Amino acid sequence: MNYILYTVLVKSPNEYGEMSIVDQAEILEQQYYKEDEKRCYFSNNDKIFENYENSLEDQTIEIINLAGVSKDQVDVIRNLFELEFICEKKKSIYFRKQHYGGPEEGGWYYYTKQLIKSEDGVTTTNEYNLNALDIYGVGYVSEWEFYQGENENLRKEFYH
User: Taking CA 26 as the corner, what is the angle to CA 9 and CA 63, rounded to the nearest 5 degrees?
Assistant: First the structure.
């Protein structure tokens, strides 16, 4: 499959404390790109991620993988879901850091990623030594994402 169809749900707590859908979109994203090529996707709501990033409400976002789509089905899917907008993904830079998790199972480690920089389209990355991780997997990495901070992970992990 060359494309993936997603549904995006933005949710906010209602007066009863339950999460209600406040915005929704369908997205069709191509999966294979050249390394420095801009990442684009088709959508029926070109402002969903911008509205989510700029919202002052306590919102959550959920991106659900619906189906793989072959190249010859793209026009049918675009018409069916009215995916009329062509949008660009953002390129963000993260600092990837290794942490000691604990002594269980002979000792284990996990990684966090902290957002350093995010811009629309292609980011100028000369000031960062991207993807040149040290022997422990620590360093700067770049990620293409729908919204700023999509791949940020600062949570401490625990052994289960």
Answer: 40
> What are the tens digits of pLDDT across the range 29-51?
998 877 767 889 999 999 999 99
Burial of residue 121 (CB within 10 Å: 0-12, 13-18, 19+) is exposed
State pLDDT tens for residues 15-27.
998 999 999 999 9
Distance CA 3, CA 20 (A): 29
Residue 84 has pLDDT above 80, yes or no: yes
Beta strands at 90-102 and 85-88: parallel, antiparallel or unpaired: unpaired
Q: Is 110 helix (H, G, I), strand (E, B) or coil?
A: strand
The pTM score is: 0.79
Residue 101, number of CB atoms within 10 A of its CB: 15
Which two three-digit tokens encode residue 68? 């793989």
End-to-end alpha carbon distance in the chain? 35
All residues at 6 or more sequence positions from 129 whose CB lies less than 8 Å from its CB, including other chains:
139, 140
What Å distances lie between residue 35 and 18, 32, 89, 124, 144, CA to CA?
42, 9, 14, 14, 11
